[in-house]
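note to self — DONT lose this again. spent like an hour looking for the file last time. sequence + predicted structure for the chain T wanted, 288 res
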Amino acid sequence: MHYINVQTQKYHIVKTTSQSAAQMGEYEIIDDFGGHAKCMAEKMCMESQLEETAAFIDLNTLEERLAGKNSIIHEFIDKKTGWCRSRFIPVDYDENGRLLHVLFCIECIEEEKKRENRLIYLAQTDLMTGLYNRGSGERQISHLLQEKTGGLLCLIDCDKFKTINDTYGHSTGDKVIIAVAETMQKSCRDKDVVLRLGGDEFAVFMPEMREKAAAERFFERLFYNISQITIAEMKGKQIEISLGACFCEASEEVSFDQLYRKADRAMYQSKKKQGYSASIYEEWMKSN
């Protein structure tokens, strides 16, 4: 922890941990806090974070940034210890009301970040499959639509899934859901948003895919990969899926719900056929 005179930039260290003390031994002793902090930042911070960190430790703008606040914080990744949080805390002001002394401290928050990331993962993920859950998946797709990315939304549904549960049991049904999810991920591109809508229903949004021929190649690849799934309890019976899809242009103003309804109309046409059927939405489907 540093006790700093903001007006003179003089400082002294009032508290340190054994770990930070060892790190301090690596730094050149510099009288003014600006030079000292710059030296610390260059040794601690990742290259990509140096500019932002330099702006945070700048004492020339600190009074304005602290105005009306009890403290300000900045998080960065230390090269040795991982995530850290630096903080400025105002201590007192001079007779003219100008900021005089502040405390500056750095704490390691690596474990806190791990817990935070775990909670974010749990909130966004379908725990059975590891895919996005419905809420987080919809938000991802809605964000892409707002950015006018354009692309293809596909809805995927396991055929006669209730029969699988009734015939082979729910534990086998769970294995089918997991296998389909894994196969979808392997069949899609890294930038595609793959989610489980619930039950045996899945969706994938494929940004920037706007050509029918490319979409049909994806359908063929997905159908083939699904057909290769083997579930021992099903004794050779194949898993079959149906697919409904809808394109949206980059310039199109469309919500996730609007796109979903169109893809669902296309799914309705696919369900009329027997196994591994895909339909792309066309306007005539609106009234069917």
